[in-house]
């Protein structure tokens, strides 16, 4: 869906970052209210690390691959050109196999890297992501409808797990009609990689599962995209409202 951004400053996870030192961290947010309506959605994005949790009380899991693309739009970008860019990115899912969910929109919080827009896509397998990057249609969308309006972008991809049920896998249903996407990209110090990071991610996942009133779904994982080695991990969380991230980070 096309998303009309709301103004918000997304918080980070300070206790998590103290546990595992980072050399670089980026977070952005966008509001996704009305995401399942074709024309009037709102979305917030936050670029960060990867964690998985959800309000769905299912035990069986299904592997998915999450794709995050952050864009830096040029200063002069008309509403028409922005709509054209986001519309082509969103409708890419109808031209290529493997994409099971899409969220995108204008980033609503300030971020040190000055990213302006974000795209989140969910794929079934790593092979689907590879085919996505190589697809001529997607290359044409980037060349003709994205890069003329942007001067930079970064892609992050990671494998995670979600509940093995149609609604959470495809991010459908009433719970996904509203809320805020919170994306956090992390670059952990080499000294923190391995057991310290895994323990921290496990602790964060456990904490998120304890607050289904705030979180619809969350995924996390290690970045395997070689074009963005500066980021080691990512987290994408769908919060139920624009206030939920602040409540969660103050727990």
UniProtKB/TrEMBL annotation:
<dbReference type="Pfam" id="PF07876">
    <property type="entry name" value="Dabb"/>
</dbReference>
<dbReference type="InterPro" id="IPR011008">
    <property type="entry name" value="Dimeric_a/b-barrel"/>
</dbReference>
<protein>
    <recommendedName>
        <fullName>Stress-response A/B barrel domain-containing protein</fullName>
    </recommendedName>
</protein>
<comment type="subunit">
    <text>Homodimer.</text>
</comment>
<feature type="domain" description="Stress-response A/B barrel">
    <location>
        <begin position="65"/>
        <end position="158"/>
    </location>
</feature>
<dbReference type="InterPro" id="IPR013097">
    <property type="entry name" value="Dabb"/>
</dbReference>
<dbReference type="InterPro" id="IPR044662">
    <property type="entry name" value="HS1/DABB1-like"/>
</dbReference>
């Amino acid at each position: 869906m096309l998303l009309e951004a709301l103004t918000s400053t997304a918080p980070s996870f300070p206790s998590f970052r103290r546990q595992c030192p980072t050399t670089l961290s980026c977070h952005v947010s966008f509001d996704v209210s009305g995401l399942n309506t074709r024309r009037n959605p709102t979305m917030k994005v936050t670029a960060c690390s990867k964690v998985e949790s959800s309000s769905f009380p299912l035990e069986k899991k299904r592997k998915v691959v999450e794709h995050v693309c952050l864009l830096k739009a040029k200063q002069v970008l008309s509403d028409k050109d922005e709509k054209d860019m986001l519309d082509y990115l969103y409708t890419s899912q109808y031209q290529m196999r493997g994409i099971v969910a899409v969220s995108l929109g204008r980033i609503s919080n300030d971020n040190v890297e000055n990213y302006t827009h974000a795209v989140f896509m969910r794929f079934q397998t790593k092979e689907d992501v590879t085919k996505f990057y190589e697809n001529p249609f997607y290359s044409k969308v980037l060349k003709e409808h994205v890069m003329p309006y942007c001067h930079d972008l970064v892609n992050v991809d990671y494998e995670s797990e979600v509940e093995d049920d149609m609604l959470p896998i495809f991010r459908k249903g009433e719970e996904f009609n509203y809320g805020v996407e919170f994306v956090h990209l992390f670059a952990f110090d080499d000294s923190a990689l391995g057991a310290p990071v895994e323990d921290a991610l496990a602790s964060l996942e456990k904490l998120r599962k304890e607050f289904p009133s705030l979180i619809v779904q969350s995924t996390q994982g290690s970045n395997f995209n070689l074009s963005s080695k500066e980021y080691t991990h990512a987290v994408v969380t769908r919060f139920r409202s624009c206030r939920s991230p602040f409540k969660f980070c103050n727990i």
